[in-house]
Each structure stands twice: as C-alpha cells, then as structure tokens.
C-alpha cells in the first residue's frame, strides 16, 4: 500500500458526489489525492473512468501501488448523443464481478456516470421512473433531458446476450442445453416427432 | 415468502428515494406495496422505522411473511431539535451487524433518515463536509439547516463506548486488557515502579 501523503488525522474524505450503487459497485466525481485514504477502505479492484483526458500521474501511482486496474472509456462531456457502443463496452466491464469492487467516475459523477448507472439499473430490471429518480438525485440541478432519453432508449438486449455467452463459457454445455430448451419453449413450439 | 399481489411483469420498483448506504444498509422513503417485490431481493433482516405513526397493516403482513424484524423509533417529522437519545438508540440497532441487511426509512427518507445516516457517517470517521453533501443530495431542495447542525453537534463518544462494551462481551478479557493498556499509554504515562 502506498505511503499516504494526505493524512487528515484519521478523518476519511470520500470523493465528491460519492455513493454506493450495489454490493461491490461505487460511483463518484473525480477522485483527488485527499480521497485516496478513503478509497483504500473500499479495497477496489478496478476503476471505470469515463473521460477522454489522460489519467493524472498521481492517480496512476495510487492505482499501481494498490493494484487497481484502470478501464478508460473516453466519452466527451458535452457529447450529444452519448456513444451507445462505448457505454455498452463499459457496462460489460461493470457487470463482470471479477472486476469488483469497482468505482465508476467521470468528472462530476453526474452525466456520464449517471448514464452508465442508469443502463445498469435497466439490466437489473428497475422500473424506468426509479432509474430516472436515481439519475436526477445524483445530477442535482445539472440533470439533462437528453441523458434521460439516452437511458430510456438504451437497448440492453445485446448485453443480455453477452451475459448469456459468459454463462455458457462458465457453465458449459449442460447449462447451454437447458437454456436452449427453455428458449425453444418460449420462442417456438417444438414440432411433434413424425412417427 | 408472501404471495406477491403486486406483480409488475418482472419490473422491480424500489421505494422512493432509495439508495444503498453501506454493505447491508439501505435507506429510502416509506415502502409501498408495489415496492415489496424489490425489497424481497434485498433479503432484509430488519427495518428501522423513524416515525411515530403505527406501521400499516399491509406492511406488517409483508414483514411477518418475510421474517423481517421492525425497530420503530417514533420521531416527529417537525421536531426541533431532533431527540438525541432516540437517534442514539436507533444508531445502536443500525451498527449491529446481526440486524443486517437493514433498511432505514421514515416518510420521505430525507430528514429523519438523513440525520441517522449522517450520524453513522460520523461513527465511520467521514469528514463533515462529505457527511453534509450526502445529506443534501438525499434531501434535495427540502434540506434543513437544523438537520446539518444536529449532525454536526451529535456526540458519538457514547456510541463508541457502547461499541467497545460489545467488543468486550465478544472478545473477553484478553481484548479488554489490551485495550486498557492502549488507553493508559495514551491518557496517562505509567509511573516508574519504585525500587
């Protein structure tokens, strides 16, 4: 663990706009050196960073010293619309529990982070009004109508297919066959065998 | 588990103003029947309810069917100042991991819940500005100056003493002696033995 140059006499300083999303998932604004002591208590394994700007040297040193992996997805702050494919890639990293505990952050933890968390909530089957309430709570007066629209129209089917393929890889053919039988039942009635 | 009369076709509806505080600790506004399916996914063991009004029959039935214990601390919504002893009692229930996973709620999840969570953050050694930022994020435009003052002046020493006594009970004399030696070192220099 890195020697801490930012000792505040035992007081912990979480990053701005910090909150817990789920077991092993956190969100915040950009972590500053005075937040490192607090971050250490989270035992992070990874960080999802959603801005195009290079990660600061001091933060990179902290990550290296604490063996934290950085996943950077460069999304412009003023982008309209948000890049769906990039958000989908970030979502794949986010739902992979091998990367947990994980912190998502952009600059303020409001728009880019809010959109990614909103998409995660859709994967978790949250109703849309609850997803938007959470987005707005974290964005405050800075909330953007176009972000709400992005979240609402974001298609999670391809992510569900990706999750399914991960399950196949881990659980093998037995799981796959069971799943396929299940899908056949729902999608298409099996033909009666000709005798 | 209770038969769910509020099926929304697989869509989950968290209670209003819901968020995760820590591992095994959640906060929200008053849970309605349409939120029960979501609450079930949290595997709650207890609920801290901070209003004086009786708990609704439908909610009591849900708790009973799911073996969830209710801790009620009747704090008036307009109380000024907040009752310190009652908040301390609620805090003792909250920090006891035997009650986790636990949901804290009042009516809107803003003032009474916000004060209790704020006091918890002080126990966790969060710096005051981060505690207040979290309080304000959850209270929105309804935030109250007197709540911030309550959190700032809330004395957590008696809770720390209570935690210490729990540790003594669980870890026995060895722990106690080590602790007392540690305290002696800090509080009072031991006298050199006379020879």
From TrEMBL, chains A, B:
Coiled-coil spans in chain: none
A single MF term (Gene Ontology): phosphatase activity
Listed Pfam families: Y_phosphatase2
Documented EC number(s): 3.6.1.52
Family (UniProt): Belongs to the protein-tyrosine phosphatase family. Atypical dual-specificity phosphatase Siw14-like subfamily.
Enzyme class of the recorded protein, top EC level: hydrolase
Top-level taxon in the UniProt lineage: Eukaryota
Catalyzed chemical reaction(s): 3,5-bis(diphospho)-1D-myo-inositol 1,2,4,6-tetrakisphosphate + H2O = 3-diphospho-1D-myo-inositol 1,2,4,5,6-pentakisphosphate + phosphate + 2 H(+); 6-diphospho-1D-myo-inositol pentakisphosphate + H2O = 1D-myo-inositol hexakisphosphate + phosphate + H(+); 5-diphospho-1D-myo-inositol 1,2,3,4,6-pentakisphosphate + H2O = 1D-myo-inositol hexakisphosphate + phosphate + H(+); 1,5-bis(diphospho)-1D-myo-inositol 2,3,4,6-tetrakisphosphate + H2O = 1-diphospho-1D-myo-inositol 2,3,4,5,6-pentakisphosphate + phosphate + 2 H(+)
Keywords recorded for this protein, A-Z: Hydrolase
Keyword Hydrolase: yes
Name by which UniProt lists this protein: diphosphoinositol-polyphosphate diphosphatase
Cited Gene3D superfamilies: Protein tyrosine phosphatase superfamily
GO CC annotation: cytoplasm
Residues annotated as domain Tyrosine-protein phosphatase: 17-163
Source organism of the structure: Microthlaspi erraticum
């Amino acid at each position: 663990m890195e020697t801490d140059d930012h000792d505040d006499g035992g007081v912990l300083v979480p990053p701005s706009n910090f909150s817990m999303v789920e077991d092993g998932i956190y969100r915040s604004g950009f972590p500053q050196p005075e937040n490192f002591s607090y971050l250490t208590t989270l035992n992070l394994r990874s960080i999802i960073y959603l801005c195009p700007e290079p990660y600061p040297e001091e933060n990179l040193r902290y990550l290296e010293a604490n063996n934290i992996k950085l996943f950077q997805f460069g999304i412009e702050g003023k982008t309209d619309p948000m890049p769906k494919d990039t958000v989908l890639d970030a979502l794949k990293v986010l739902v992979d529990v091998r990367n947990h505990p994980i912190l998502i952050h952009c600059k303020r933890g409001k728009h880019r982070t809010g959109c990614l968390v909103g998409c995660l909530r859709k994967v978790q089957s949250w109703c849309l009004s609850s997803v938007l309430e959470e987005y707005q709570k974290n964005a405050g007066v800075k909330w953007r109508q176009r972000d709400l629209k992005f979240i609402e129209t974001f298609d999670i089917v391809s992510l569900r297919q990706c999750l399914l393929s991960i399950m196949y890889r881990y659980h093998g053919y037995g799981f796959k066959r069971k799943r396929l039988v299940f899908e056949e039942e729902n999608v298409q009635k099996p033909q009666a065998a000709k005798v």
